[in-house]
Design a protein that fits this description.
This protein is of the alpha+beta class. The chain is 21% helix and 19% strand. A five-stranded mixed β-sheet has the order 4-1-3-2-5. Strands 10-13-12-11 form a four-stranded mixed β-sheet. A two-stranded antiparallel ribbon has the order 6-7. The protein is elongated.
Length: 329
C-alpha cells in the first residue's frame, strides 16, 4: 500500500482577493488531498496537505498552471513535515492576523460574463438587474479592503451580512458551497442583503421610493436631456453625459482649474469605435482584460467628420476609450 505524506506549502504574491483559497481547495479536493488552507495575513497563503506523494506533486505543478487569471505567484515554498496526525478532511481555516502595513491585492475587477448572465436572467431572482453583482473572480477588491488578511469582516462589506433566506439559494449557502463560483467570495451580495443605489437631485436630496428599474430609466432620461450625472462605480465616482460639444464644454467649465484635462469615452463595445479609431490586437486585449483600463487609441487620419467630439481631448490625436466594467454600466 502506498504511503501518504504531509507537506507544508507557502505561496506568496497576489494571492488574496483573487479566489485563491477556493481554487486551492477544489484543486486539492480533486486530487484526494486532506488538510487545511489559510491566509497568512500579508504574507500570502499557507497550506498543510496530506496524501499520496504523486498527487501532492501534481497539485504543486497545477497551482502555477491553473491559478486564477487575476493572481500572480511570486514564490511557492514546500517543506516535508514529520507529521503523525491524520487529516480526515480538507478545510479553509480562519486567517492569521495581518503582518505590517503592506497590501498585496489586485485592482478592482470588471464584472465577469457569468455575473452578467445572472444579472440578465429573470430566473436568478435575487441577482436579476442587481448592479452590485460579483463573484470570486470579479467585482471590487482593492477599494473595499481595509486591511489584510482578505476576509469579509475586513472589507467595507462588513456592513452587509450575507442573507440566510432567499430563493432559491441564500448568499451564505453560495459562500459555503465549494461547487459554487461564489465559494469564499468576500465582496459579493444580492438584492436581498447587499447595497442599493439611491438617486439624488442636484440639491443632494434623495429622490425616494425608487426601484433600480426606475432609477436607471430616470437617469437615462436625464442624460438624454443633456444633464451631467455623477455615478458611484467600483472604486470611485465618474461623471456621465452625452459626449457632444455643448455638454462637454459645460462639463469643462464645472471642472474649474482642471477644465483642460482630456476626458475618456466609455463605449458599449469595441465595434462601436473601429470605424473611427486605430485599434490593434494588443489594444483590444487590454480593453477587454479584467482590469477594463482606459486605453489611448489613435484617431484614423482618413476620418473627416468624426462622431467623436473634438472637445473630448482638445489638440490631441489620441482618445481614451474604456469598456463597461460594472453592473450599473
Amino acid at each position: 500500500m502506498k504511503e501518504s505524506k504531509t507537506v507544508e506549502i507557502k505561496i506568496t504574491g497576489i494571492v488574496q482577493g483573487v479566489g485563491f483559497r477556493p481554487f486551492l481547495y477544489n484543486l486539492a479536493r480533486s486530487l484526494n488531498l486532506n488538510g487545511y488552507i489559510l491566509n497568512r495575513g500579508n504574507a500570502g497563503v499557507r497550506l498543510v496537505i496530506q496524501g499520496y506523494p504523486q498527487n501532492i506533486q501534481k497539485f504543486i505543478e497545477e497551482i502555477r498552471i491553473k491559478r486564477p487569471a487575476i493572481s500572480f505567484i511570486e514564490n511557492i515554498e514546500t517543506n516535508n513535515l514529520d507529521f503523525e496526525e491524520k487529516f480526515e478532511d480538507l478545510e479553509i481555516r480562519k486567517s492569521e492576523p495581518g503582518r505590517g502595513i503592506s497590501l498585496t491585492l489586485p485592482p478592482d475587477i470588471a464584472i465577469c460574463e457569468n455575473c452578467l448572465k445572472d444579472m440578465n436572467d429573470p430566473q436568478k431572482e435575487k441577482y436579476y438587474q442587481y448592479p452590485f453583482i460579483a463573484c470570486a473572480v470579479c467585482g471590487p477588491r482593492y477599494t473595499t479592503v481595509n486591511e489584510l488578511p482578505y476576509d469579509r469582516e475586513r472589507t467595507t462589506m462588513i456592513n452587509f451580512p450575507f442573507c440566510h433566506q432567499a430563493n432559491p439559494v441564500s448568499c451564505i449557502q453560495e459562500y459555503s458551497d465549494f461547487n459554487n463560483r461564489r465559494f469564499h467570495a468576500q465582496t459579493f451580495a444580492c438584492a436581498v442583503c447587499g447595497p442599493h443605489y439611491t438617486l439624488y437631485n442636484k440639491n443632494r436630496e434623495p429622490i425616494k421610493d425608487k426601484s433600480i428599474d426606475s432609477i436607471l430609466q430616470e437617469t437615462a432620461e436625464m442624460i438624454n436631456d443633456g444633464k451631467i450625472i455623477a455615478i458611484k462605480g467600483i472604486g470611485g465616482t465618474h461623471l456621465v453625459c452625452l459626449a457632444n460639444d455643448e455638454i462637454i464644454l459645460k462639463l469643462r467649465e464645472r471642472k474649474g482649474e482642471r477644465k483642460y484635462k482630456p476626458f475618456a469615452l466609455m463605449v458599449p463595445n469595441i465595434n462601436t469605435m473601429e470605424d473611427e479609431l486605430e485599434i490593434s490586437n494588443k489594444e483590444k486585449e487590454l480593453l477587454t482584460s479584467f482590469r477594463r483600463p482606459i486605453v489611448l487609441l489613435e484617431r484614423k487620419k482618413s476620418i473627416v467628420n468624426s462622431v467623436i467630439s473634438q472637445q473630448i481631448a482638445p489638440g490631441l490625436n489620441n482618445v481614451g476609450i474604456m469598456l463597461p466594467y460594472s453592473g450599473i454600466h
